[in-house]
């Protein structure tokens, strides 16, 4: 099986987090076609992402997609069997390596001790009875004899390990080679099928469209889904207040919608990780870290949206039965605790963000500016594209794993999330004042 050595570039990660939600939101909000048609572009997308399972065939209503599934299962099964054989090869190779080292080391020690024994025994025989010289000579003889005895035992054990481990290693290596060969040929068969279908897909899409009825009524499920989507859009829009606080509510709403599309990114990234690990035996060193950083930033930015739509967790035993004016009074009185929390979050996030770009390992202009080594004017005057593209330029804090993604953008997202939360708190405070004063 070929391996996948792809590592997501840092710039692609951050660009994807920014551009994907914009593109996804644009596609989601475009006018829908009144008639159902199979899309060639969507077919190729499914071919790229799920072609190994034949999903592109199922998309165009072709049952030949079932031919891809057993080949894909064969790859997974062969890789699983090969994984066990690879573990045995690794274990037995380690035993053989340790045994060979023991033989090399102990054989030299035994030979040296055996060569020294005649001389040591002569010194023992020549020593005066009961003297310190005799005791020292006896210790030397005993030590040399013990070295020979222990060394011979180690050599015998090492030889036994070699006799047992080498056949197991060779047998496991043969099994591993067999399953690798099966997996490789199954992969090439699958790849050939995908390439052929890539050429046939335009014809398959045309055939699927030709088989569609001229006027197809929407199903009950489709009508319910459309009604649910319309209701969700209305439900979000009703949270937008009138007056000057409306722009804050719209900002929180758009921020929540923006980061909600990140969940789709996670599906593709983890799909890539699963395929890389179990089909190509090439687990990534970036997928897990990229996603938990993304979810952390999503949590921070969506805080204002959760506050706007009241989708956060709270105890409503006493609050829910109150009238609207009384709820406003409760919110006003307890808002002091919110602003203490949100203000502290904003200040500490700013400190964390500045510290993240000012760490000593940062050699970029931003890091030098954050440490106070250069003024703002010099930083802006010397800014160039190399600050973004040069691999030798590092802006402050990075992660500790092999991917080494910069962490300072996440720290600045903390500032953005805290700022959105403070703004939404101000909007909520103003709306409660309106209600108390009888204007809302």
Automatic annotation (TrEMBL):
Keywords noted in UniProt: Cell inner membrane, Cell membrane, Coiled coil, Membrane, Transmembrane, Transmembrane helix, Transport
TM region positions: 12-29, 58-78, 185-205, 258-278, 329-353, 412-430
Coiled coil location: 89-161
Gene3D superfamilies on file: Nucleotidyltransferases domain 2
Membrane topology: Multi-pass membrane protein
Domain Tripartite ATP-independent periplasmic transporters DctQ component: 269-355
Alphabetical list of InterPro entries matching this protein: DctQ, TRAP_DctQ
Location(s) in or outside the cell: Cell inner membrane
Entry function: Part of the tripartite ATP-independent periplasmic (TRAP) transport system.
Assembly information from the UniProt record: The complex comprises the extracytoplasmic solute receptor protein and the two transmembrane proteins.
Similarity annotation: Belongs to the TRAP transporter small permease family.
Identification of the protein by name: TRAP transporter small permease protein
Organism name: Thioclava sediminum
Lineage per the UniProt record: Bacteria, Pseudomonadati, Pseudomonadota, Alphaproteobacteria, Rhodobacterales
